[in-house]
What does this fold into?
Amino acid sequence: MTRIPLLRRALAGGLMLAGLAGTPVSAEDGTTAEQTVDAMNTLWGQHPGMRANHAKGTVVEGRFTPSAEAAKLSKASVFSGAAVPVTARFSDATGLPTIADGAANANPHGLSLKFKLADGSEMDVVTNSLKYFPVATGEEFRDLLVAIAKSGKDAGKPTPAETFVASHPAAGKAGATARTPTSLARQTYNGVNAFILVDASGKRQAFRYRIVPVEGEELLGSEEAAKQAPDHLMSEIRTRLGKAPVSYKVLAQLAEPGDRTDDATQPWPEERRLVEMGTLTLTKPVADSASAEKALLFLPNALTDGIEVSDDPLIDARVQAYAVSFGRRSQ
Ligand code: HEM
It folds into this structure.
């Protein structure tokens, strides 16, 4: 319930900065979220109306049908009732609106979901294809982006990015866990951050989302990926949905005692139990995707009774940064 004041504060920050268009903002100014979005704008440019990260995307529609097992773990209405409508946005990483879908830097691809619940409220799940995150906190993510921005060809050795990676082991390895798929319908997407399921008796269970394509994951080598047409993935998913639905199993990877919930650089052991929470079935592309994505804002803490945030500090860092980006792109 702290979401609204936090969002308002972050939005106010975004609007304030947007009012200073053209004025360079140094990394010392503003909140961590503003500095993070500034660093993204420095790396990838400012593109009016576009997201600071995951700028290129496409919007589609479908539904989520819960499993019987899900209702035992969480009292959330999304897991107990009939199928609910879902709006989904696939995306490429970076703030480059015309990045080639097969470019290495377009990884991790994103899948954002907005569930339209029976009571009229909405719930978001924002995932990408990384198996774990390069850093554990919002401050570290800002520092990583600033270090990359300062590591151009004129930077002395070791570059700021090399120095950062040397002291943050996951930062040098996380990127390689996400590869270009043959289709956005053939990629596994991960929640990365831990959340908490709360059942009817109040029992709490930490988990991470994993969204697995029913047809199986199918990934390309980097050379094959680079040969794809620039818009291949975004147009292929729309064409595919024009012919037949695409389905994914929505899984919850359950934490065991001792598994850290506050550090997204630490994947939990693969043998952890995976519970099928339901099926996501995407059915059709949204006709005016460009207008639809401008209006959409996905927030990782937009939850519903029965699902809660964990102590992972990245969740709030993300909420703050997404709100700053939304404030700027809404100008
Ligand atoms: C501190 C960590 C992070 C920061 C600061 C950050 C920042 C951002 C920003 C500024 C945007 C643009 C938001 C907008 O304008 O609506 C964005 C989009 C996105 N991010 Fe993150 N991000 C972080 C971590 C993550 C993680 C862990 C994931 C996935 C598990 C993720 C997945 C996405 C996706 C899928 C989008 C596109 C959302 C959409 O489709 O509208 N991000 N991120």
User: Anything to note?
Assistant: The chain has one domain: 57-314. Confidence is low (pLDDT under 50) at residues 1-26.
